[in-house]
Amino acid sequence: MSVGVRRLSVLGEFKPFGLIAEALDGKPPDNLADKYDYFLFDPKFVRERAEADNNGGCSISAPSNCSDHELFIRGNRIIWTTGARVFKRFTLPSQVITVCWCHIGDISEALLCVLQIESLTIYNTSGEVISIPLPRTITSIWPLPFGLLLQSIEGNFPAHAPFPSSSRLLGARDIPRPRREIGHSPQNNYSLPSSFNHNIKGETVSMSSHLILSDLLEEPQCTYIEERGKLNIMRDFDERTIWTSDQIPLMASYNKGKMQHSVWVAEVVNCIPEVASASLSDVVPAGVLPKQFLFRRIWQGKGAQTSASKVFLATDDDAAPIICLLLQEQKKLLALRLQSVEINNEILFDIKPDMSWSIPAVAAAPVIVTRP
């Protein structure tokens, strides 16, 4: 076998473990939906708790690191299996829209985030539950390394239904930022105009097409994009998120009207307001303003009439990450090599024009080789 070639063996047709669990439960409920969804996930998400409960071993009482983990979703029910064993069952009051694992705030373990029509339900691996009401329609949720990204739709925001929190959002829509800072530290400092108005919190959130939940005790915050050296609220509701990474702060999106794919870097920006008067400083203490979240576009590609059917991360032969977009309409796989540079102990990401290529393809999946 030549260098770089790997042989694949077909073990058999895969059947979700959740279907087997449903069959063992007996007759399914009459209101059970015909459609179902499932996904396998890495046991690393529950490894810390399993090792703490089990001293690194495998047992029946703790989520096992020795088997495949699967979440099976049908209707308002979720079944979490480890191998052929059911570990947990969740039954929610309304239909589940989507589910993902995410790290939020300073919590070390990953949390299971479940989106429903009017609420976001969050579980930890021990079974504790937090329910967050959503005063506007959220269509999808996506994990990022520092929180949960929420995609919303336009024109569905009750006037008197703020997020349940005492913290304040920034009300500036157009925030000046020096050109020399663009594309640098993900912990940038910049100044807000002194005309900061704390009364338009709900308006700024309603204008934002993307929100980020970075702390379970705080409200989801509006996001910003960098445009011509300034930061503006991201309010392009046609910019639909199609993929994020929970390891690298990246988002891929598709805009149907522009027939355009984009790749963004998500950055955390420290906010330091210009306090122009004593009265304003009383309203907005400098030490309590939340961090803001910025999306910086590092690549865009036009000409696709439909969204990429699949987006994933792969690695080059030198271990450099590659973003892969499967464009079934064009029967090709577009690969974007990610360039990273470390400046002041912080990693910056970019994609250069000469670092992208495409090959003919009708299907694709990342393959992880664990042995040479």
Automatic annotation (TrEMBL):
Where does the Anaphase-promoting complex subunit 1 N-terminal domain start and stop, copy by copy? Answer: 34-270, 303-372
The cross-references to InterPro entries, in alphabetical order and at most eight, read: Apc1, Apc1_N
This protein's record includes keyword Cell division: yes
Q: Which residues form a coiled coil?
A: none
- What UniProt keywords are attached to this protein's entry? Cell cycle, Cell division, Mitosis
Q: Pfam families per the record?
A: ANAPC1
Q: What is the protein's name according to its record?
A: Anaphase-promoting complex subunit 1 N-terminal domain-containing protein
Q: Which domain of life is it from?
A: Eukaryota
Q: Which organism is it from?
A: Citrus sinensis (Sweet orange)
Query: One cellular component GO annotation, for this chain's record?
Result: anaphase-promoting complex
Q: Is this entry keyworded Cell cycle? A: yes
Among the record's GO biological process terms, what is one?
A: cell division
